[in-house]
Write a structure and sequence with these properties.
Layout: H1 29-33, E1 41-43, E2 50-56, H2 61-79, E3 84-90, H3 95-106, H4 109-121, H5 123-126, H6 132-141, H7 147-154, H8 157-172, E4 180-183, E5 186-189, H9 194-214
Parallel strand pairs: 2-3
Antiparallel strand pairs: 1-3, 2-4, 4-5
InterPro entries: Thioredoxin-like_fold, Thioredoxin-like_sf, Thioredoxin_domain
Organism: Nitratireductor rhodophyticola
Family: Belongs to the thioredoxin family. DsbA subfamily.
Length: 216
């Protein structure tokens, strides 16, 4: 097996998969927000009354559904208005998802999110086809990434280890499927609708405002 194809060494069929469920107590907010092996990719103010952490896999159809259909409205309604800080974290279930996350990180901070967006929207073109390496290389060509940079990125063992470590931390918090969200520390699984997010977020925002008023 060539070194550049190491990341694709295991079969990646795109099937739904879950890690064995972990019987753990609810993680503390401090533990959830502790610095990890990679810089956080977040949206919204750090002092927002509500913090949402998403663990996702780029090959997960449910994650794509959230990203394409729910995230834009969630961002507009809550993140852009300063009510929510939203953190996206890597939780790859297969080598192709790991590769996608690595490539997005290799694109740099200013191109990270557009790359994540592109990978979700082209998921059917690379996540479940026979030759994942060439398919993913073709998609990344849309970003301007050269073949040399593509191969260099996927040879970065340290970066692969860091992506894997983010996922391992998620597993320690009880994450065993994607997408999984922690909303002010409380776990919610699945591609929640914007209505369901509102049911959870609105009372938290109201409570924070009331608490702020009582402290004056």
């Amino acid at each position: 097996m060539k070194r550049r194809n190491l990341i694709f060494g295991m079969a990646a069929t795109g099937m739904v998969a879950t890690y064995p469920a972990l019987l753990l107590a609810q993680p503390s907010t401090d533990a959830l927000l502790a610095p990890g092996p990679l810089p956080e990719k977040s949206f919204g103010p750090e002092d927002a009354p509500v913090t949402i952490i998403e663990y996702a896999s780029l090959t997960c159809p449910h994650c794509r559904t959230f990203h394409v259909n729910v995230w834009p409205e969630l961002k507009k309604k809550y993140v852009d208005t300063g009510q929510v800080r939203f953190i996206m974290r890597e939780f790859p279930f297969d080598p192709r998802s790991s590769a996608g996350f690595m490539l997005a990180r290799c694109m740099g901070d200013d191109k990270w999110y557009p790359t994540i967006d592109l990978l979700y929207r082209t998921q059917d073109n690379w996540a479940r086809v026979a030759d994942g390496t060439e398919a993913l290389k073709s998609v990344m060509g849309m970003t301007g990434m050269s073949t040399a940079d593509f191969e260099k990125c996927l040879k970065d063992q340290e970066l692969l280890d860091q992506v894997s470590a983010v996922a391992e931390a998620g597993k320690s918090f009880g994450v065993d499927s994607t997408p999984t969200f922690f909303i002010n520390g409380q776990m919610q699984k699945g591609a929640l609708s914007i209505e369901r997010f509102s049911e959870i977020i609105d009372p938290l925002v109201t409570a924070a405002k009331q608490q702020g008023g009582s402290d004056e």
